[in-house]
Design brief:
Elements lengths: L11 H33 L2 H37 L3 H28 L1 H7 L7 H12 L2 H16 L4 H24 L3 H26 L15 H33 L3 H17 L1 H19 L3 H28 L1 H5 L6 H14 L2 H17 L3 H26 L5 H29 L7
Length: about 450
């Protein structure tokens, strides 16, 4: 069966790397996809346009996190069914998911367009960037259905052990986005509006390719649009697992939006610098994120097959591999932070502000591998409520208050004080997660919830 792979068999290191490396590739391309808008705008436009795209894309990224969290539920349910060889359940999951996510996409698009200005005002978007940021968000909102569809298709394939096809889809989409950015921004001078149009076009193409692959590929399920049926119990399972993830993936980035708001209050240079670092972090965090989500699929399949020990060993390996990447990124940002910021902007003020932030924030590269991989394991176990609670609690009990406190008491507040907050939140999250894992082990409750 060319479109799927059994993750419950074979050498664990080989299996994990074979699944995770394409996932890293896909995440890299996804980050490049998002960074292309900011990078090309930074080359052809002024700082106000960079700030507009940075702010607008940060808001859209929060919505993408919500969508991704919701669709991960399909990976967990399909992975569990595939590991247990309950192939009939997979078709039912896909059918129900298609209906639920289409409705959710329409509602989310409408709400985003309706409330775009209040959202941008909450972010304290600089006046010079406000109109351009509004245009960017409104245009991107029309593509939210495509984002739902792409993430749903990818979630299905990853639940079946296929991480290569999603990488191919996003590679094609990334190429189209970059070409369209160069044409619309570089040639026609469309700025933030052009960046948004390019994004929507590329998203639509990736969905078309993914849908064709699902329809023509060799899978254990039989998916046909005209035979889609809704199953209420399956929908309950999807939202029971997915909503906590969506809540986490929405509220946790909101804590970073609060940090973005603080950065915006320091002026256009700080806003552009913070936005540039956000895009940089999409690359720096992607190995940890890739191993975490690979672990989710691997854990779901192995627990479906009753192989708990293999899932726990995969957790240890995932943390080890992700941490190695984190050490490399930490050293880079401590030694030569300007070289990273310069990828997005050559403005000296932006470089200076970005350096201040990375000096303190880069410690988080050492902690995030633990946070992400532990969450990925809990996701695969179906224990999404705990993972969501832990992430949200650490974000709003530590990240937001620490950033606010340090910028308030500092004599000359800068992005350096803001950058201290995320590592502090990660440390708390790790302590809570290991305590919960120990509790589950002692109570013998490491089981997938039905």
């Amino acid at each position: 069966m060319s479109g799927q792979k059994d993750l419950t068999k074979g050498n664990l290191v080989t299996t994990l790397l074979a699944f995770a490396l394409p996932y890293i590739g896909a995440n890299f391309l996804q980050a490049l996809y998002g960074a292309a808008d900011l990078l090309i705008v930074g080359r052809f436009c002024d700082s106000s346009a960079v700030s507009a795209v940075a702010t607008g894309s940060q808001l859209m990224q929060t919505l993408v996190f919500f969508i991704t969290g919701l669709t991960v539920s399909a990976t967990v349910l399909i992975g569990k069914a595939f590991g247990a060889k309950q192939y009939g359940s997979i078709t039912k999951i896909i059918n129900t998911m298609s209906i639920c996510f289409f409705v959710a996409g329409v509602i989310l698009s409408f709400c985003t367009i309706a409330f775009v200005m209040p959202l941008l005002n909450v972010l304290q978007t600089p006046v010079e960037s406000l109109n351009a940021a509004k245009d960017y968000v409104v245009i991107c909102s029309y593509g939210l259905l495509f984002i739902f569809a792409y993430n749903a298709i990818s979630a299905i394939l990853r639940g079946l052990g296929n991480s290569v096809a999603p990488m191919v889809f996003v590679a094609v989409s990334c190429f189209i986005n970059i070409v369209a950015d160069i044409v619309l921004i570089g040639k026609f001078g469309m700025g933030a509006e052009g960046a948004a149009i390019a994004t929507v076009i590329s998203q639509a193409v990736s969905v078309v390719i993914g849908a064709i692959y699902l329809r023509k590929g060799d899978f254990v399920f039989d998916f046909k649009f005209r035979q889609i049926k809704f199953d209420f119990e399956t929908a309950k399972d999807l939202f029971k697992i997915g909503l906590p993830l969506s809540l986490q993936d929405t509220l946790t980035p909101l804590s970073f939006l609060f940090l973005f708001s603080l950065a915006n209050s320091f002026g256009v240079a700080a806003s552009a610098a913070y936005g540039s670092v956000v895009r940089l972090n999409a690359f720096m965090m992607l190995p940890a994120g890739a191993f975490a989500m690979s672990l989710t699929a691997l854990t779901a399949q192995n627990l479906g097959a009753g192989k708990m020990k293999r899932a726990l060993n995969a957790l240890r390996l995932s943390i080890l591999f992700a941490f190695c990447f984190g050490v490399i990124f930490f050293i880079w940002q401590q030694v030569a932070p300007k070289s990273a910021i310069a990828i997005f902007s050559t403005d000296e003020a932006v470089l200076s502000e970005g350096t201040r932030y990375l000096r303190s924030f880069s410690y988080d590269y050492l902690f995030v591998p633990f946070v992400f991989c532990l969450n990925g394991f809990f996701f695969g176990c179906g224990r999404t409520f705990f993972a969501a609670f832990n992430s949200i609690f650490s974000a709003f009990a530590i990240r937001v208050p620490v950033a606010f406190l340090l910028t308030t008491i500092a004599v000359s507040p800068s992005l350096f004080e803001i950058g201290i907050a995320p590592p502090c939140a990660s440390i708390l999250s790790i302590i809570i997660a290991f305590a919960y894992l120990e509790y589950l082990a002692r109570a013998k409750k490491l089981l997938v919830r039905k």
